[in-house]
Write a structure and sequence with these properties.
With 408 residues, this protein is of the alpha/beta class. Helices cover 34% and strands 25% of the residues.
């Protein structure tokens, strides 16, 4: 009897030593159709507030936001584009873009980890949250605002005067990569200052170059000079001012020979791609290639193998110029992107889906030119909802910076 009382007392003490939330069953979380793995602290349902709580790291790792912890104030600051959320441990309200918002429960410290309310944070960042009680699962469809975005800057002279304007617009639109054409007549110190600023804001800069003629083997020396210049520049500055990669926009199908004898052009283009692969090996530079969305329909000469798969095997990322202004339906962004996304998923590579904002001569359904940025963002959200489950999907790119900036 005495032993039984001792055991009962031990159990009672253990129950009071830990908050009730510890005993809630484990919660599964998926973002954009992919289940999230939590390496240390797991999400749980707090029994007092009935809120699903997740580690703060989830917010930055999976929702794309920046999260900062101030231990002295016990304050969490979460920011994503134009949205800023400030929470304090133990308080049941937050400041959202400067305005007080009350909610059930609070952020807490658990086992040395900061835990935050999943639904409140996700919905404040414009994500859609769905609770499936039968499976103890939370499904989150992220906002297109949190999706990585790239954009092209073809006139690098604008970084001489407009750096702060460029960076401000990029931050507002959620740009994570700028493809900046390299003009070797510009003082390298200009590039250094610009890249240092963009990187401090979480934006990478890729050195952009290319033209249809770069598909010719006779242009290999030009390609080598471009690569050598970027390598030399990077070695002369610290990592905080370095180009993160090389971005090639060659488009050989714009050459007149393409319609006459594209086999010859394809073989020459492939030779130049092999050169790029060789010249950049071991450089630490990420290599991205712009390609048309239909490249998967073109086979490697003499092989039953697509050109897009051949490119994906060699390089880190393809940016598919999927120039359509409607997400769904026949010949839309989603339909045109899927084949290459499947290839890239199999090869464990990445694909960025690009759209156009410049005026186009190819028809009314190609560009977002003359449309508002809100219309484009709505279509991109629809496309994102369909494409996010592909492991290869790496967000969007908008062509180009200037026309995007000029949109209504």
């Amino acid at each position: 009897m005495k032993k039984l009382l001792v055991c009962a007392l031990a159990i009672m003490l253990s129950l009071t030593a830990f908050p009730p939330a510890i005993y809630a069953s484990e919660v599964r979380v998926s973002v954009d159709g992919r289940e999230v793995q939590f390496p240390d602290e797991y999400p749980y349902v707090d029994q007092r507030s009935n809120l699903t709580m997740v580690p703060l790291a989830f917010v930055s790792d999976k929702l794309g936001a920046t999260a900062k912890w101030n231990g002295k104030l016990k304050q969490i600051t979460i920011s994503l584009n134009r949205d800023i959320i400030i929470l304090v441990i133990g308080q049941n309200h937050a400041l959202v873009n400067g305005k007080r918002v009350d909610f059930e429960g609070s952020a807490v410290l658990k086992n040395g980890r900061t835990m935050v309310p999943l639904r409140f944070i996700s919905e404040t960042l414009h994500a859609i949250v769905e609770w499936q009680p039968a499976h103890n699962r939370v499904n989150i469809m992220s906002s297109v605002a949190s999706v990585p975005k790239g954009t092209w800057i073809w006139d690098s002279n604008i970084i001489k005067q407009d750096q702060d304007i460029i960076i401000s617009f990029a931050k507002m639109k959620g740009v994570t990569s700028i493809y900046l054409q390299v003009d070797r007549d510009i003082d390298p110190a200009i590039y250094e200052g610009f890249i240092r600023k963009t990187k401090s804001e979480g934006i990478q800069v890729e050195a952009l170059e290319g033209r249809p003629e770069w598909a010719y083997k006779s242009k290999q020396e030009e390609i080598q000079k471009f690569i050598a210049w970027v390598k030399a520049y990077n070695s002369s500055v610290g990592p905080e001012a370095s180009f993160s990669g090389l971005h090639f926009d060659i488009e050989p199908y714009a050459l007149s020979e393409w319609t006459k004898d594209n086999t010859t052009i394809l073989e020459s283009w492939m030779d130049n791609m092999r050169l790029i692969e060789k010249e950049t090996k071991g450089s630490g530079l990420k290599i991205a290639i712009d390609v048309p969305f239909w490249l998967n329909t073109i086979n490697v000469p003499g092989k039953d193998y697509s050109m897009s798969a051949w490119m994906l095997e060699k390089f880190d990322c393809l940016v598919i110029m999927n120039y359509r202004n409607h997400a769904l339906g026949s010949n839309g962004i989603v339909e045109n992107a899927q084949a290459m996304l499947r290839e890239a998923s199999t090869l464990k590579k990445k694909v960025v889906v690009a759209v156009e904002t410049l005026i186009s001569k190819e028809g009314p359904r190609v560009s977002y030119y003359s449309m508002s940025s809100e219309v484009m963002e709505k279509e991109l959200q629809s496309a994102h909802n369909q494409l996010a489950h592909y492991a290869s999907y790496a967000g969007f790119a908008i062509h180009d910076f200037k026309s995007w900036q000029d949109m209504k």
